[in-house]
Amino acid sequence: MKYILNGLFLTAVFFSAFAQNNNSYWQQEVDYKMNVQMDVKTFQYKGTQELKYTNNSPDTLNKVFYHLYFNAFQPGSEMDVRSRTISDPDSRVMDRISKLSPSEIGYIKPTLFTQDGVDAKYVIKGTVMEVMLNKPIFPGENTVLNMNWDAQVPLQIRRSGRNNADGVALTMTQWYPKLAEYDFEGWHADPYIAREFYGVWGNYDVTITIDESYTIGGTGYLQNPAAVGHGYTVPGQKPMHPVKGKYTWHFLAPDVHDFAWAADANYVHDTYPGPNGVTLHFFYKDDPEIAENWKNLQPKTAELMEFFNEQVGEYPYEQYSVIQGGDGGMEYAMCTMITGDRNFGSLVGVTAHELAHSWFQFVLATNESKHEWMDEGFTSYISDEAMNSVMQEKKPNPHSGSYRSYFFMATSGVEQPLTTHADRYASNRAYGVNAYSKGSVFLTQLGYVIGPENLSKTLKRYYTDFKFKHPTPNDFIRTAEKVSGFELDWYLTDWAQTTNTIDYAIKAVDNEGENTKVTLERIGLMPMPIDLYVTYEDDSQELFYIPLRMTWGEKSNPFTDLKRTVLEDWAWAFPTYTFEIKNGKKVKNMMIDATRRMADINQENNIYEK
Ligand SMILES: [Zn+2]
């Protein structure tokens, strides 16, 4: 009952969000019904899929594309060859795919495909399946696509697979034929080379038949807890008798764009109350070495969810699961798969990051392949803030690590712009620094430009306006503009579309009688407003604020206990800027941006010491 009410509520939010923001916005819609029969001995499974696909676009579609991600785990695949030819391969992948035997590879092989009951032609190239439709799908119409398939779960190499390093039997992510997304930029049938996903919003109805000893955790609300037990029922309640040694698990997941699950015969399954009635589930191996950390993680997960609810917006589903599985940490719908044999700080840290993705990636579902920094960067930003608060790390700047990584890359000569497609980075390192660090600095530094209170409001409004959609970088920056009143397109352009850097300097400080003449210089190409902190010889302090003309805005004083003087704005084209301090005080020292939120690649020329 609770599920049905929430489903209706979510649907209402869906449509009102369309109406409020952008009348021309549309998104496709899927309704999946899948049945899976898993053989836990051979790691092979059979699946059937009935997919109702609604074309909300203004275009007539003559074909559709599917992702068959498991095909990446075959010798000679694009993922394999890329890993063997990139300069810094992921240590989890290396040449391991090339060494998989036929019984260890992954595959999804369709055995039947129909459109509205009639066979349709298709071709499969690597991880992508192209279907030539029998009849076009006109704007506003829908069609029913049926597929049956045989599949094999690969030995775990990356993200999904069998028998991971922690001994988890099945990490079932990217495991089913998944329709590619079609949006205002057309089809996004990206091959699975290394990373990043983009899916169609909709509903999933999934039944999984598996040996009775296996516990399943994952996306979706279990519809038959009393039948299967495994920690989903009240203690003491006996599940039904399995049929031929197997249980069939039935899950429903409304308003998601993916479905993931994991299963193991040796999982402990705990639940813990989260904020606003959300149930937190924890699935971990029954191993005394990790049990204490996994118990202590549970109240911390609730605190983390509370933090994100307050800072961004309320988590919209009824459950969230932290599942031991995968090969590090990876985010999915209503759950995460993480490796579990970690120290406590690392266990909380990875959970904080993956849980934060429920906001930045899952509910705010940007196209990660194109805008990887909007999910990894924003997630890094908010999870660093959360760790500082929940783990009481009390760092003055929890983002300093992100700045350090960015500075290293920006001065390396091999930086690529943030607009680079996630698969097209020259190295894994360049991708990682851009997506995680430069993306995180984007937000922290935006707080420097428009003020922290405006940054905080921007995140909340972004969530309110774009949840359950596919927001773009422009949607985000327009939100920041509306909240702050600043013009900010230059900020998105320079930071995300170029490798321009920031370098401002204190060029000269001259005493002219009672007055002090200060000359600042813009050396880098990227514009910035300036906060100049001055300490006088009597140890009193003053903040001088030089707005950037092209923003047509003025932020409020970030330190209310510090005297601030707002100077004339600085137009970008002028390389230098001069002003005079005429209060009769002698200057002892001064510094551009003492909070170090402006990512100035040369900090040495930011300081003047008499
Ligand atoms: Zn992440």
Automatic annotation (TrEMBL):
Pfam families: Peptidase_M1 (PF01433)
Span of domain Peptidase M1 membrane alanine aminopeptidase: 328-495
GO terms assigned for molecular function: metallopeptidase activity; zinc ion binding
InterPro entries (UniProt xref): M1_LTA4H (IPR034015), Peptidase_M1_dom (IPR014782), Peptidase_M4/M1_CTD_sf (IPR027268)
Organism domain of life: Bacteria
Region forming the signal peptide: 1-19
Keyword line: Metal-binding, Signal, Zinc
Cross-referenced PANTHER family: LEUKOTRIENE A-4 HYDROLASE
Ligand binding (Zn(2+)): H353, H357, E376
Cofactor binding note: Binds 1 zinc ion per subunit.
Protein name: M1 family metallopeptidase
Cofactors, names only: Zn(2+)
Active-site residues from the entry: E354, Y436
